[in-house]
Amino acid sequence: MHVETLAWVGGRPGFVRLIEQTLLPREEREVEIRTVDEMVDAIYRLAVRGAPAIGVAAAYGLLLGLQDQEFEDGADFLGRARESAARLGSARPTAVNLFWALDRMVARAERDQAAGKTSDELLAGLFEEAKNIHSEDAHQCRRMGEVGADLLRDGMSLLTHCNAGALATGGMGTALAPMYVAHERGLSLKVFADETRPLLQGARLTTWELQRAGIDVTLICDNAAATAMQQGKIDAVFVGSDRIARNGDVCNKIGTYGVAVLARQHGIPFYVVAPLSTFDPDIRSGKDIPIEERSPEEVTLGFGTRTAPEGVSVWNPAFDVTPADMVAGIVTEVGLIERPNLARVEEALRKGGRLPEAPTGT
């Protein structure tokens, strides 16, 4: 049912095979990534995208930068691992899974180097760590799908924005995972997919995925979402996230905040589906999340066709932030965070091991 957006091929040495998402849906092509620079380019130009998938890709990218090298000792290995991590981290600033995965890989190398392991053993440890990051993401997607599917009823109509399916993860997806699990359970759902300008991830990717899965999907222009809600066509909204602040503010693809405002106006529950790795405990609120700004040509010359006069000024933020008080719940692998706030998010993060346990009183 679900596509495999990326995979490590071979042992050591190996390479990364991924779906070239910039070509979908007109062409289904896989590309081979064999160097750090190729992975940085793939992440930046959205050949691989979606916060969890970027994290997996970055972990594998670190291996690509180390697997064919000769090292003087463990310290030399660790230094070069940090250099590769810095290069990969420069690809996109907003998706926190990118940095979470790289930090986890470097931390593994630091532990193994401190234990006196050889360079070959250090590389073997990172290979194991990257594979674990990938398999854990797949497991978390399934778990989020099960938690989220419990919120759905037969005959519901859902709205989603951008793409948060298998193409955005190492598994079955985040926001689309509950739809997939509900479909497996025999529930009949109708999904409205926003086109998601300017790069049309909803039109190109979400509809492609859902059609392949046999789920009823209808594509709408972004500015049709309000009318769809006004006419009673939407029962709930499900979206993914690229970074969630400690207080529950949610950063996702530009236009998500507008969908949340519309959902609140029409009394429609707005759900976010994201693994705990997408939460950033170091950021207290959404106002501190760095927002990537992308090329003006994505707006004025999208897909090679000029739609605006040359020289016009363009503001092209890739993401926006939805305040926590507009979110009915965040679906995670450790359960549903209802009406998220600082205390409830911290409780979930502790449950998932992302924060130390709170001190108990005497």
Binned strand content: 15-25%
Q: Briefly note the structural class of the backbone.
A: alpha/beta
- Per CATH, the architecture of the largest domain is 3-Layer(aba) Sandwich
CATH superfamily of the largest domain: Translation initiation factor eif-2b, domain 2
Series of H and E elements = EEEHHHHHEHEHEHEEEHEEHEEEH
CATH T-level fold name of the largest domain? Rossmann fold
Determine the fraction of residues in helical runs and give it as a percent range: 25-40%
CATH class of the largest domain: Alpha Beta
Tell me the number of helical segments per DSSP (H or I, 4 or more residues long): 11
| pLDDT < 50 stretches | none
Count of the domains: 2
Distance between the termini: 53 Å
Average predicted local confidence, pLDDT: 96
Task: Give the spatial strand order of the biggest sheet.
Answer: 6-5-4-7-10-13-14
* Rg (C-alpha, Å): 20 Å
Strand tally: 14
Topology:
Layout: E1 6-10, E2 14-19, E3 30-33, H1 36-44, H2 51-64, H3 74-89, H4 96-114, H5 119-149, E4 157-160, H6 177-184, E5 190-194, H7 201-213, E6 216-220, H8 225-230, E7 236-239, E8 243-245, E9 250-253, H9 256-265, E10 270-273, E11 279-280, H10 297-300, E12 319-322, E13 329-332, E14 335-338, H11 342-351
Parallel strand pairs: 4-5, 4-7, 5-6, 7-10, 8-11, 10-13
Antiparallel strand pairs: 1-2, 2-3, 8-9, 9-12, 13-14
Helix pairs in contact: 1-2, 1-3, 2-4, 2-5, 3-4, 4-5, 5-6
